[in-house]
Amino acid sequence: MRRNETAQIAALIDGTDTSRAGTVESYVKGAHMHTLTTGAQSALALPDPGAARGRDQGASAQLEPRFLYNPSKESLPAIGPSIPPLLLLLFPAVLMAVSVAREKEIGTITIFYVTPTRRAEFLIGKQLIYIAITLLNFIILTVLVVTVLGVPLKGSPAALVLGALLYAVAATGYGLLVSMMAKTQVTAVFAAAILSVMPALQFSGMMTPVSSLEGPARILGTLWPTTWYMGLSVGTFTKGLGLAELSGHLLRLAVFGPVLTGLAIVSLRKQER
Amino acid sequence: MRRLLNVFRLAGKELKSVLGDPLMVILILWSFIVAVMLEASGAGDTVYNAATAILDEDNSMLTRQITAALGPPCFQPPLMIAADQVAPDMDAGRIMFVLAFPPGFEADAIAGAMPAAQLEVDATAVSQAQLGTDYISNFLAAETRVFLTGNLDAPDTALRLELRRAFNPNGDPVWFKSVSSLLNQLSLLTIALTGAAMLRECEPGTIEHLMVMPLTPLEIALSKVLANVVVVLAAFTLSLLFVVQGVLNVPMAGSVPLLLAGTAIYLGAAAAIGLFLGTMARSMAQLACW
Fold first, then answer.
1. Residue A129 pLDDT > 80, yes or no?
2. CB pairs under 8 A between A and B
């Protein structure tokens, strides 16, 4: 560099974890640029102050980034609101699925077979309790996010509460549908957990923004209630949106509960085969 | 010898009860085939296929050149949008990055007046926001330099940084995601299967039948570990060979037998955790919550 020629430095990054490698890469580039613009010419006592920056005229245009919704790029406001959607799906679904499968496995479902209880009465009666439990969980989780994690609820609380109610119906409806297919509690738990964790974790916008998903991942994300409730939770907490902006999410979320519960009611048999 | 035979007999019974349930078999296949493929197609928190839009108020050679540079695999081909669309699109989460060029961007760049392009970033996904901003900043600098000097190979700085990624030179997320997804399925399934195997005996009371037979608790426990490890290891091997290497085309740089041997040992540990949880839990609902 003292001879005023181009020098090269190599940086070798462990590329096994692609996301970590990407972060490291951008930090290394940043440190490199920073050193070039501030440190290099003084350290090397280069004759020309602009020499280290570029052979031509250095940077000739700049970028002014504005980070919306989370200007300081803290991880808690980003992650905090995306945890409740996951928990509010998984636990109600599993508990709901087990509650019917247990009756089948132990044999108490015979009581349902021999009494004039209708299918909808039997299932919705069960579901109501778990919806109540889910809403209780929702209150606890929201308080935790606001107080312990310190993420303020900037948007409309009404939208969030309404969303939680619709989401609770959807999650329990999904649990009911799973328990219709399962013969034993083991399979009920498996099906409820395994089938729901992946779309909830991967395709709901928690790890990857929904707008970047493509192909089957995008379709699965769209057809899964967590995606819409995730949008509501992040929208009300981090983006500070109101009822009007989120009405689209609420309407889509409202479809899942009745459809899933309806499918469960239709597929429940009143007679043992 | 007799004890070993007992373990194998019990393991056979265990295998039957796992494989005899069609939904269970479907779930195992789902975890190791469909789930791995789907998860590998998601990108995790690298910037991959990010939705971008351009608000071009300059509409010049330079801004079009920068727009053309934003593209796959990191970005979706950018949409051209109007100023009043920016806020609704960002609020709805349809767009992650909006790059806005002010009028006179090209003229200012030629005059050396350091024009600034604005980038609106959805920072609800923190790591994608930061990485994407860095990428776009690099694209902007490189394209402007090429535009002004007319030379593709113009050295940018006197001290050039040569970045190399070891093990995964192109940073292909599928290589990492497919294997890590496979490992997630492995732990989850083994712990749940063995835990459930224990509970399946305790809850209806068939564990009492086993207790009054001339069997030691060790034999009962070992048979459950053995049967479930065999099922999961078989699924893992098939998934590794046909899904990860076959369908997803992930190259295997090291030794497959070594990986399988390590997996077998790991599965023993995971199955032991499952057994432990299975004996602690009172019901299936409790086990699931753990």
1. yes
2. 316
Cβ atoms within 10 Å, residue A235: 27
Order of strands across the sheet that contains B97-101: A62-68, B116-122, B97-101, B52-56, B79-80
> Does A271 touch chain B if contact means CB atoms closer than 8 Å?
no
Q: Residue length, chain B?
A: 290
The shortest C-alpha distance from A70 to chain B (Å) reads 5
Mean pLDDT by 10 residues, chain B (290 residues): 82 83 83 82 70 90 89 85 88 89 90 88 85 86 82 63 85 83 86 82 75 82 89 91 87 90 93 88 68
Complex ipTM value: 0.75
Report angle CA B194, B195, B197 to the nearest 5 degrees.
60
Spell out which residues of chain A touch residue B284, defining contact as CB-CB under 8 Å: 98, 101-102, 185-186, 188-189
Amino acid at A273: R
**Does the CB of A49 have a partner CB in chain B at under 8 Å?**
no
Q: Which residue has the tokens 């989780």?
A: A141
Q: Do B169 and A60 touch (CB under 8 A)?
A: no
On whether the pTM is more than 0.90, the answer is no
For residue B64, give the amino acid letter. Answer: R
Question: Is 50 exceeded by the pLDDT of residue A54?
Answer: no
Can you tell me the distance from the alpha carbon of B284 to that of A94, in angstroms, rounded to the nearest whole number? 10
Contact A9 B192 (CB under 8 A): no
